[in-house]
Prior knowledge:
By secondary structure, the protein is α+β, with helices and mostly antiparallel strands. The chain has helices at residues 5-12, 15-18, 61-69, 107-113, 177-188, 206-215, 219-226, 237-248, 255-264, 270-273, 284-294; strands spanning 21-30, 36-43, 47-49, 59-60, 75-80, 85-86, 89-96, 100-101, 104-105, 120-122, 129-134, 143-146, 149-154, 157-160, 174-175. β12 (143-146) and β13 (149-154) form a beta hairpin.
Amino acid sequence: xxxxxxxxxxxxxxxxxxxxxxxxxxxxxxxxxxxxxxxxxxxxxxxxxxxxxxxxxxxxxxxxxxxxxxxxxxxxxxxxxxxxxxxxxxxxxxxxxxxxxxxxxxxxxxxxxxxxxxxxxxxxxxxxxxxxxxxxxxxxxxxxxxxxxxxxxxxxxxxxxxxxxxxxxxxxxxxxxxxxxxxxxxxxxxxxxxxxxxxxxxxxxxxxxxxxxxxxxxxxxxxxxxxxxxxxxxxxxxxxxxxxxxxxxxxxxxxxxxxxxxxxxxxxxxxxxxxxxxxxxxxxxxxxxxxxxxxxxxxxxxxxx
Length: 305
């Protein structure tokens, strides 16, 4: 905890969200990739990692702030999910990384967020922005780029909060369902850059694909994900599924092979795979594989082996 964190949250965090029992403390821990991550926890004499979607451990904002004020955690976050809504609309978090330079948001980020006038704060690093807005999202498409800016939409997961509101933005959460849908359409149907070729399909057997993926320069990150660590994806199983397939598509673009490799991973959820996920009747597994194969660009340069 740094001095002023509690005061900043008490002064800046939206009033509409303060009464919710939807908060968890977090602890900063180094991931296998070497990066620092924020691990949602419960307090029982010390911090224990938990699945943030398990509502047994959710706290009120006041109780979470008290833990932070006592120095028992590194920060707190809001758990977004179907239990949270504003005027009947679900709450959605927008996470924009690396869009702040010397304390000022990039013009492109401000332009992107202009139709979504709602509570906006600087991220913990000071280099990103978080927005909390009310609106409903289609079932697929949560992460990508819009006009060169990395955007993640979080409707079910953990969002670390700061209370450091961006000057000139609303002090509370507002509904913008149409603007949110318009942003989602840009994520799902981006204009692909002409200068970058897609990964080339390579005829490898299943074992060879896994060996290549684990030995790539991002192999440690792939390995922890393949073995079931969801911490790098907000403990959101659907985000983790798409991220795993995004890794594997560099080595095979065969849908059947992707399905086999995915089924061998610790992320396999047979009961979820067969559920209908799209209006045209595709099940979850088929739709997720199709989304991964449709990705024109990796989410980051680290994904490229």
